Amino acid sequence: MEQPSHLDTARADAPPSTYLASLVDTALEAHQAGRLDVAEPFYCEALALDPAHPKALHYFGVLQHQRGNHRFAAELMSEALKLDRTDAACWSNRGLVAAALGHPHEAMICYDQALQLQPDFADARNNFGVALQTQGSFDEAIGQYRLALAVNPLFIDALLNLGTALSKLDRYDEALARYQEVLALDPQSAEAHFNAGNAHNAQRNHDAAIASFQQALLLRPNYAEAHVNLGSLIGKLGDYAGAETHYRQAVALKPNPTHLVCLGGSLGAQGRLDEEEGFYRHALALDPGYADAHQNLAWHLLKRGDYKQGWAEHAKRWRTSDYEAIALPGVAEWRGEPLDSRRVLLVGEQGFGDQFQFLRFARVLEQLGATVDTCVREPLLPLAERVPGVRRAFSGKPAGEYDFWVPMTSVPSCVGTNLTTIPAEGPYLFADKAKIKAWRKRVDAGGKSKRKVGLVWAGSPTFGNDRYRSAALADLSALSEVKDVAWYSLQKGPAHAQLADGPQAFRAHDFTADLNSFDDTAALIMNLDLVLAVDTATAHLAGALGKPVWVLLPANADWRWLEHRSDSPWYPTMKLFRQTVLGGWAPVVERVSEALHDGGV
Predict the structure, then answer these.
(1) For the chain, which has fewer Cβ within 10 Å, the N-terminal or C-terminal residue?
(2) For the domain 7-217, what is the CATH code?
(3) Structure confidence at residue 17 (pLDDT)
(4) Which residues contact 257 (CB under 8 A, 6 or more apart)?
(5) Among candidates 225, 194, 223, 221, which has minimal Cα distance to 210?
(6) 562: left (phi over 0), alpha (psi -120 to 50) or beta
(7) Domain coordinates in residue numbering, the chain
């Protein structure tokens, strides 16, 4: 191993104390230059001569920490602090080791000791801020970063960390200003560009976010996190092939479970189902409890019709925070135990469409002997109250005593649902009779001789695959030319504005201003002959009401519609019209037009 030549004379004639100091200085010089392999033998020789040398113990501990040997580092630094409790730098570094070992409270004690000894110690302030931020104490962390910057206004790490903490509090403009300060000091800071990309993305400034991530990667091509975040952003914007490219880079750099699941998801979104499964299973081989891998694998298996394995994986889908948000404290989750004379709370989860789809299982639980209440999102309450098997429906915090609670989409795994045993007998949702009657007069005024068809062309723009599951009204304009059809818009949300420029046939019967709830929509649907919709909650509502419904599906359709089928085992009155090429609505519209022309309902 290379050794500096000046030690030769020191070894020959220097007194032991001088030689020991020279060993430690040489070790530190190599250490500070990043030459850990060169530094290590000098530390070891110094400690062999004096096992109680605080400085050698301290910085040999730093070296071990840098190598990931955190427990050994903690022992070395703790020993150094026994010998010299006035070393503020050692206290601060001991805090870093405690944080690496997962002991945040101990880390903060160490930083506090360092700051009591040296209040203007900017590194310790910054480290204290990081520890506070890890605990979710963002305001306190910001205070520490600002104190560090008061001592050293050019402290780049503190500026970066301050920006991150501000972002956590949704103070994105302030965060971006800090990142600009970093870039003024160091234009080559890939971290500043990366963090700015995250802040722009949170503000939905997608172009700026993409540019920031791309600049981070230009400066540091092996920046795995930047590849992932850029891939996730462009994937949400519909560029799944581009997302795949960046995820593959991330997996090559860091093949961890998160990156593997992202790559698998990008393949699934492109319809490459034969390729995606292996990445989820690889992720689970690395981390058997990784919730996102279980969820994506579940969706994959369910889409392929493997309900036995699919529901089993689905039962393992929970992230801790998601589970705790709906769990009922002190009440056992139902996992298939006998339900005779038991009180069960059926808890809604995910979106409106999911809850419409799975409310059917209230009747299944009742048939197993349970008394069933259900907790759903407030807009669903009137319809949920009329579901067979439901004693009481409510929104918000549960009131009452229960023997079990169960998430709606967990019931199939508990009862062994497969493709042939889906409880599809219907209807199981029922509109208000008085509202049905009130709508009948308005609908009949549109002409009794025509088929009355409700139309929904777009879902919520916040949905991950909305770019492809939703259509533009212009994509469907050919349908307006089909004779003997009276169109009724059921479209709510931002996409409704497209109606103003749509064909006259689509604008003729627009009652959406009076659709103030799903209960109103259900009553209107009951007066129609057919609902034509993209994959939205309204499609589920129509199917659960037992009305004929045709669903227009993207090539990367959701798991519940399976593969290749033109019908749905979940809804007997439903027909599916699928894209063959992602984004290609024209052939779908042509098939729907032909079906309408032929009088199909």
Answers:
(1) N
(2) 1.25.40.10
(3) 78
(4) 283, 284, 286, 287, 290, 292, 293
(5) 194
(6) left
(7) 7-217, 222-317, 323-415, 433-597
Domain 323-415 is found in CATH 3.40.630: no
pLDDT digits (tens, 9 = 90+) for 454-477: 999 999 888 878 888 999 999 999
The C-alpha angle with vertex 223 and arms to 219 and 225, in degrees rounded to 5, equals 135
End-to-end CA distance of the chain: 83
pLDDT(3) > 80? no
Give the C-alpha separation, 127 to 100, whole Å: 12
Q: Which residues contact 360 (CB under 8 A, 6 or more apart)?
A: 387, 423, 424, 426, 428, 544
Residue 270: C-alpha distances to residues 65, 185, 237, 267, 468 (Å): 43, 42, 13, 5, 11
Distance CA 34, CA 29 (A): 9
Q: Give the H or E element holding residue 345.
A: strand 343-347
Shortest CA distance to 49 belongs to which of 81, 25, 24?
Answer: 24
pLDDT > 90? residue 545? yes
- Contact at 8 Å (CB) between 382 and 519? yes
- Does domain 433-597 fall under CATH 3.30.70.890? My reply is no
CB 442 within 8 A of CB 526: no
Q: How far apart (Å, rounded) are the C-alpha atoms in residues 112 and 187? A: 33
- The span from the CA of 231 to the CA of 263, in Å, is 9
Backbone angles phi, psi at 371, to 5 degrees: -95, 125
* Same-fold call for 323-415 versus 433-597: yes
Helices 156-168 and 172-185 cross at an angle (nearest 10°) of 160
Measured distance CA(189)–CA(196) in Å, rounded: 11
Q: Which amino acid is at 519?
A: D
Over 70: is that where the pLDDT of 234 sits? Answer: yes
Q: CA 246 to CA 225: how far, in whole Å? A: 10
Query: Please, what is the Cα angle at 298 between 308 and 465, to 5 degrees?
Result: 140
Query: Mind listing the pLDDT tens digit for each residue in 278-304?
Result: 999 999 999 999 999 999 999 999 999
Per-residue pLDDT, 226: 98
* The domain made up of 222-317 is a member of CATH 1.25.40.10: yes
What per-residue confidence (pLDDT) applies to 601? 60
Q: What is the largest CA-CA distance in the chain?
A: 113
For every residue of 355-392, DSSP letters joined together read: HHHHTTHHHHHHHTT-EEEEE--GGGHHHHHTSTTEEE
In sign, the C-alpha dihedral spanning 359, 361, 362, 363 is: positive
Pick the closest to residue 98 from 61, 142, 125 (CA basis). 61
Q: Region 229-239: what's the mean pLDDT?
A: 94
Length of the chain: 601
Would you state the structure tokens that stand for residue 485, as one six-digit string? Answer: 């059809």
Q: How far apart are CA 280 and CA 268, in angstroms?
A: 11
